[in-house]
Design goal:
The chain has eight helices and ten strands. By secondary structure, it is an alpha+beta fold. It has one domain. Strands 1-2-6-3 form a four-stranded antiparallel beta sheet, with helices on both faces. A two-stranded antiparallel ribbon has the order 4-5. It has a two-stranded antiparallel sheet with strand order 7-8. Bound molecules: iron/sulfur cluster (2 copies). One iron/sulfur cluster binds next to helix 6 and helix 8.
Amino acid sequence: MNAQEVKLAARQFGADLVGIADLKTLAYLPARENPYSIFPQATNVIVIGRKIPRGSLRGIEQGREMDNSFPQFGFYALEDNLLAKTTYDLTIWFEARGYEAVPLFAYDCDGQEVGVPVAPGKPAPNVMLKYRIMAQAAGLGETALNGLFLTPEFGPRQRFAMLLTDAGLESDPPFQPHICNDCGKCVQACPLHALNPQDAQPAGLAGYERPQAARNNILCRRCQNGAVLTNYGRFETVERTAAACSRACIQALEERGACQEKFTHRFRQSATWQRDINGQSSK
Ligand code: SF4
Ligand code: SF4
């Protein structure tokens, strides 16, 4: 088995993105977020992604349909059905060839409470991998100023899953950030002023960081501009791919040709809309 065969299999199972990281580049991570804590014999993390259709954002972009297309085809059904199937099929593919693979969803669990260690010196369950770090180590993209993960192919429009394996695969080089140009359109687009680039901090894989604006998660959890509030435990934060801060970024990336996927018609086709913290129109 080699990396090329793995990537071909992943794509045949429906992945739009696939990258492979060497776990030695991630050895610096603390035990509570380190792949070795879950699978000490692992050699690689494989990060796969399926794209979020731009069309699933259309109803929210127009301000006409919020609860059907994106929440399902951009989030729950995409992650729980389509991406889960791709991940499961690739896991079985590995195991049919004599290598173990640990399938993991790319949950965004910053600040999630953990359990009690099963023995002294062990990290408490649940060890949660930071998928943005894994995906950057696997060469797929970067964490942008607005805190969303951007790929050259789709900008912020994808969902990720991860597999830890002991297959000893050749890895991809980590992603050197270059997509986000700090244009600030995401900051300007946020009706609640939840993003503060003045307090930006370096974010990303060690040695490959770029600035990420401070974000007020309390405001984001009250956002009614396309953000999807999720259950505690699945995401501690909100799903922001369809929110104003992300849609402004999609438009900005497309305007300067920074997205490989091209469309005949531009994403932003009419004036934007905004809601304040009470859900009232503010534009
Ligand atoms: S809108 Fe501009 S500054 Fe914000 S994340 Fe996108 S590229 Fe970066
Ligand atoms: S989710 Fe809403 S409140 Fe949070 S940064 Fe995006 S637009 Fe602003």
